[in-house]
Specification:
It is built from five helices and six strands. By secondary structure, it is an alpha+beta fold. The N and C termini lie close together (11 Å). The protein has a four-stranded antiparallel β-sheet with strand order 3-6-5-4, with helices on one face. Strands 1-2 form a two-stranded antiparallel ribbon.
Length: 146
């Protein structure tokens, strides 16, 4: 059973986002970005309340900007999804999870050391250039569900 419901177009959209956000960090980096996307859909709390699809997560606007920088800047995100990224996206949608992204709802590249918190949420770990942050356990139980 997959972690969330999805369509073929969701797989392609997620594959494009994973590549745009983390291609330079290889397959594992792209999988971690995919995991954050799935986690946001499953969380249903805080900034991610009432998101119902992969499309909702990827095109979410917060504070007047898209949540994912790649949607705004365009570059790689607007290229056709490749089979290798589609396979990674499907893997993440179906079952893949790994630290530090296992419960993460946020990631970013600080171009410096990872801060201990991000918007008051605890640091979960780092993979290459991206720092991952998960919600405090008492603030978003949905992020901790399989």
């Amino acid at each position: 059973m997959p972690r969330v419901k999805y369509t073929d177009s969701d797989v392609a959209l997620m594959a494009r986002m994973m590549r745009a956000e983390a291609e330079g960090e290889g397959r594992l980096g792209m999988l971690m970005v995919g995991n954050v996307i799935v986690n946001r859909l499953k969380a249903n709390c805080g900034d991610f309340l009432d998101l119902r699809s992969i499309r909702d997560v990827i095109y979410q606007v917060q504070g007047g900007n898209y949540s994912f920088e790649a949607v705004q800047k365009g570059n790689v995100f607007y290229q056709r999804a490749r089979e290798v990224e589609k396979k990674l996206a499907k893997q993440t949608l179906d079952y893949w999870r790994q630290q530090p992204s296992i419960y993460a709802l946020w990631y970013f590249n600080p171009y410096a050391a990872c801060p201990p918190t991000w918007y008051d949420q605890p640091f979960a770990g780092q993979y290459k250039q991206h720092c991952y942050y998960e919600p405090k356990a008492n603030t978003c139980a949905g992020a901790y569900k399989w």
